[in-house]
Amino acid sequence: MKNSLWWLLAFLVGNVGLLAQPAGRFTYRGLSAADRQRVDSLCGAMSLEEKVGQMFVPAVFLQTPAQVSRALYLIDSCHVGGVSLYRNEPEAVLDFLAQAQQHSRRVPLLSAMTLERGLAMRLDGTFGYPWPLTMGALGNDTLVYRVGRHIGEACRQMGIYANFAPSADVNTEPENPIIGVRSFGEDPHRVAGKVAAFVRGMQDAGVLASVKHFPGHGATRTDSHKELPVLPFSARRLEEVELQPFEKACRGGVASVMTGHLYVPAFDSVGERPSSLSERIVGGILRRAWNYQGLVITDALNMRGVSGRYGCGEAEIEAILAGNDMLLYSEDTETAYRAVLAAVKQGRIPRERIEQSVQRILSAKCAAGILEGVPPRADSLALRAARGTERDSALCLDVMERAVTLLHNREHALPLADAVDTVCYLPLGAGESGDMVRYMGLYAPVKVLDRQASAARILEQSQGHTLVVGYHGGSPAAFTPGKVAERDRALLDSLAAAPGAVLVWLDNPYALWQLEGWKRYPAAVLAYENLWAANLAAAEVLYGAVAPKGKLPVSLGEGYPRGTGETFRPLGRLKFGFPSQEGIDPEKLGAVDSLLADIVATGSAPGGRLVVARGGRVVIDRCFGTTMYGDSLSRAVTPGTVYDLASVTKVSATLPLIMQLYDRGKIQFSSRLEDMLPVYRGSNKGKVLLKELLAHNGGLPAGLPFYSYTLDKNTKEPSEFFYADTPSPEYPLEVAEGLYMRASYPDTVTARLRKCALRPKRMVYSDLDFYLLREVVDRYYPEGIEQAALGQVFRPLGALTMGFRPLLRMPADSIAPSDNDTLFRRQLLRGYVHDSGAALLGGVSGHAGNFSSAYDLAKYGQMLLQKGYYGGHRFFSEQTVDRFTRYAYATASNSRSAGFVKKAIGAAPDHFDACVSSQAYWHTGFTGTMLLVEPEQDLVYVLLTNRTYGEKKANAFSDGGYRFGILEAILGAIDGK
């Protein structure tokens, strides 16, 4: 602010005669000469009654027909210029506005609402963004601009053309009863920047913004709804703190300023006059010192800060004389309208003063695009926008992921590195905690503790586990913190001493002033509110999927000044969100859903799950269909449904262990089979190289009918020599329920592998290569492939559903059946491996037998995409990943890598894999599964089905081209493609 403000204010105190002097003609920023001519023409044609009416903005409630009738009456009889709508259903607002605009015959209404965090602040069942105080934690203002714009777009869809937001108050008083979370914080400079960004966003969407509550309501302990607050500060302090955001907004082109009801003796000490009625403040600062020519609107004139001192009509007259253009929420609009009209006719209010305001009002309506009629509106689109789109949710999560603030992190309590250990979660507070439990469960097992238990009992139950205490705030509509219950306060204090305990505060940060114990927790995370996105972002921070980035927008006592906020290196875990966050157009994903529906409709598979991650974020997660066809045991596919991966086992269990051996120098691509497995020395396979086995180029046949060797030659039933119906030391290998294989059979498999003929070395896809590689793994890992994969890969990934023999770890009904085997095992295969060769080995083999949920398999794919790093673990070096995922031979006859399938070399442009790059690598499974990693698009793709269970038509799934058809649709939705 210029120093001239001070001499101007001093001058005004002694020269009240300036009050009657007209200001310069209003020119709204951006209006063309033609627009100005339209404004002048319309203003000239209006009667005095119409002009005075334009200055009134009555409050409109729609709960009863009488309220609707009263509002329409005021439009007809008082020619009001706008309406301010309060809480209701969005459908009711749309209906009313359609009627109201028809009643406003000459000049369309400026329909307005107070929507500081979006439509949810006033309209039931609509979308809400985080509070401004939460956005105050953001490091830059880009997201604030985007929030303002999204809110503005939703407003216009609803027919709302003015939003009485944002609050430009600098909240320096923790006990402020009315501002609190509505403010962007206590730093005037940061508040000013965020206010300006919000205003730009909203006005770029075509909605008039209004900064409030001028000259600043943030330093009060009094609510102006109830009495007149006092700002007892010097003019210099007010200039440096309270006024700074308002001045920046005014100089930046904000459409309107809302004047607050405050007593500011440094600016006007006469008779405890409210600032909203003070010409020295409204006219002196806004109009003359800052030369602001936008709209000035009073705060509601029924508030006791004004109505307690001025009667209805008198308050409105004083507000106009002070320089206000529009009068919000009079106690009695009709009475006030007639009083103002009489004051003009009597000369108390100069007619020029009315002309100035009407010029501004009409210019503002012109700028909003409604002067010559409101745009046509599609109610269905309006309601869709009001309830929130995918892009709204994505932006909301973007804000929260950058706002969550790590207040302290002693002894590196965060992030939680162990994704296997069960975390004990204690939910406190009046709010709902289900979201937090669910989101934490995406990363590790969670045990919810009883909040009614004693502190001693809670400490006992959590011993040996990480204790996370979450405080969930109650009403999202509360501006100020609620009182922390005495029992919660006692528990919060008592549990701070638990080793490694973490506090997550999902409530107004000012509530922490009520406590001291929170500072003693090893780690404290502030998520600001109990919004769904705050819960998700907090869970992501806890587990290191997202690094905390927020900075405290307000002080929280000693040791926690504004700007506090620690961080840590993220662990590379998958985070969660929405397609548009990672450059995928959600509007283009309809083809994906159609293809998934087609899989079920054509009987290609009963159901499945699709998971796609881009940029390290799960952005598509679709469960479709059921686990079985028309069976009483069938159930809908859920995120926890586990599938038989079939040949995806090769790359998800066997290959990572081979890669680790390679990484540690135990084996090389040039290693011969006889060197890795001496039992093959002297056999025709002894000189086969590791590289050849991995790329199916060693000359092995496509397969051997192992299970047929175990059938009775006459009956074709399982031979009693090989099988028993109960387990024993002689028959320990479980093939299926009630069917066990003899212990010596793996040696028989090895013998047959050793003797089988070799063919010329060329690419022939063969399970036998991975039978042999399983033997390699077993030699170097004494615990065997099953336990090695679990300990070296699956558990460090946090992939707790992944592994062989799933029935040892989970109930059968969580697993999708892979077959109703009527030939060999003669039973429903649910949790038993589909592949008969793997079944003969007890369900554990190098080529098949691994089971997983789609999400856990995506973790493995993400680890590969991140060159061997995930969850804080280095599984193998970047060079090893590169070596195993590039072409092994790079010829048209063998386009594989050392383990994976890659884009065919020299294929026709319409080849099935034409949609992927040469960097991509993948593998599919016979049961209808696929894992693909596409580094060029930073993308992981997982599709799991149980197509082998009751496929209605042979090869319908493969013939439908679903694996790559769905992938192509997703890649086609990426922005810029």
UniProtKB/TrEMBL annotation:
InterPro entries: Beta-lactam-related (IPR001466), Beta-lactam/transpept-like (IPR012338), GH (IPR017853), Glyco_hydro_3_C_sf (IPR036881), Glyco_hydro_3_N (IPR001764), Glyco_hydro_3_N_sf (IPR036962), NagZ_Beta-hexosaminidase (IPR050226). Residues 48-363 form the Glycoside hydrolase family 3 N-terminal domain. Gene3D superfamilies: DD-peptidase/beta-lactamase superfamily, Glycoside hydrolase family 3 C-terminal domain, Glycoside hydrolase, family 3, N-terminal domain. GO terms for biological process: carbohydrate metabolic process; peptidoglycan turnover. It catalyses: Hydrolysis of terminal non-reducing N-acetyl-D-hexosamine residues in N-acetyl-beta-D-hexosaminides. It comes from the Bacteria. The keyword Heme does not apply. One of its GO terms (molecular function) is beta-N-acetylhexosaminidase activity. Its EC number is 3.2.1.52. It is an enzyme of class 3 (hydrolase). Belongs to the glycosyl hydrolase 3 family. PANTHER family: BETA-HEXOSAMINIDASE (PTHR30480:SF13), BETA-HEXOSAMINIDASE-RELATED (PTHR30480). This is beta-N-acetylhexosaminidase. It comes from Candidatus Merdimorpha stercoravium.
